[in-house]
Amino acid sequence: MPQKTIKAIVLLSGGLDSMLAAKVLMMQNIKVQGVSFKSYFFGAKLAKKAAEELKIKLKVVDISDEQLEIVKHPKYGYGKAINPCIDCHILMLKKAGELMRKQKFDFIATGEVLGERPMSQNKKSMEIIERESGLEGYLLRPLSAKLLPETMPEKESQVEREKLFSIFGRSRKKQIELAKKWGIKNYPTPAGGCILTDLEFAKRLRELLKRCPKCEGEDVRLLRYGRIFWNKKTIVVLSRNEKEGKGLESLAKPKDMLLELKNYPGPLALVRSFANGVSEGTVEKAKDYIKHYAKKNPRNKKPEFLIRNYE
Ligand code: SF4
Fold first, then answer.
1. Is residue 192 lining ligand 1, measured as CB closer than 6 Å?
2. pLDDT above 90 coverage of the chain, percent
3. Which CATH number fits domain 7-181: 3.30.230.10, 3.30.420.40, 3.40.50.620, 3.40.1350.10?
4. Closest residue to atom 5 of ligand 1, CA basis
5. Domain boundaries, the chain
6. Which entry of 76, 92, 145, 214 is 20 to 30 Å from 10 by CA?
7. Mean of pLDDT values over 163-170
8. Residue 89 CA: which ligand 1 atom is closest?
9. Is the pLDDT at 2 greater than 90, yes or no?
10. Cα–Cα distance between 234 and 286 in angstroms, integer?
11. pTM higher than 0.70 for the full model?
């Protein structure tokens, strides 16, 4: 009787650890499919590159709104910035679990390394993540597997535990050594691709959540742009260059106001109220910000403004 092909889903972030996790399994003749995620806070570009390098299929799942809800109310709190990594891992693994059951994969693997990240990669958090994602026994972490309890695929000899690893901690020496040995050349530096770990962005997002707890994805998107000012429950976002101006324009939605100088160059301001509309006072403030950050006023021209209201 032909042997059954063992199939695993690997959570592929695009970083070296997740690439190695996939590679370890591929070297045991396990058929691997990558799954990656995208949201308001990160994309799947690196994962796509990694899947190409590994020559495996990749499914990208959009978790934008679900992740935003988690960012607003994380059960397990935040890391250093506004990154709810434990809750976020649970969400991603739940999604991967749905896929596993639907498409009859045998188990799920991740590139998590015990002790590598203070918040989400310690023994306690990894147990919580496994339990709450509903994957108990079916979540393999090949890079640290020998330091963790045996999983079902190991018990059922779908995976050889002996060929898995016991990597611990933040040093990347072993991973780099494995990448070299297995010919993995193109992998990114470990800098996080998720903007929720950025301290400056975290400040902006905290402010938005404080002033508008019900904010949506299209509000969060504004925070990636330019200079931000608040007047009570109204946000003024000022572009820093032409590219940002175009980006802001594309994010305008009904009831927003766009302001710019008519008679000499300067930034574009997008004004959005989260309460009862944009007040006269805020419009005046927005004009002041524009004047302040505009290029030098040629021959002291009296500034004239173009104001567009999005209906
Ligand atoms: S860094 Fe961002 S994407 Fe990664 S687990 Fe944390 S919150 Fe989620």
1. yes
2. 89
3. 3.40.50.620
4. 85
5. 7-181, 225-309
6. 76
7. 97
8. 5
9. no
10. 11
11. yes
